[in-house]
């Protein structure tokens, strides 16, 4: 069996691939930053600022 250690951020508009160990888990899904995990409810909230992140 192969263990998954990386996966795409669950945010539909995000292109990030995140380590499961470092991801924010919410509702059995993995996100690259809190802004993505919260569904971008606060437009001024900045994400991780990493390449591919939809929330800069």
Q: What is the topology?
A:
Blueprint: E1 6-8, E2 17-19, E3 24-26, E4 29-31, H1 34-37
Antiparallel strand pairs: 1-2, 3-4
Task: Summarize the structure in words.
The protein has one helix and four strands, in the order E-E-E-E-H. By secondary structure, it is mainly beta. A two-stranded antiparallel sheet has the order 1-2. Strands 3-4 form a two-stranded antiparallel ribbon. A hairpin with a 2-residue loop joins strand 3 and strand 4 (29-31). It is globular, with a radius of gyration of 11 Å. 32% of the residues are buried. The model has no long low-confidence stretch (mean pLDDT 84).
Features of this protein?
single chain, 56 residues, mainly beta, two-stranded antiparallel ribbon, globular
Outline:
By secondary structure, the chain is mostly beta strands. The protein contains one helix and four strands.
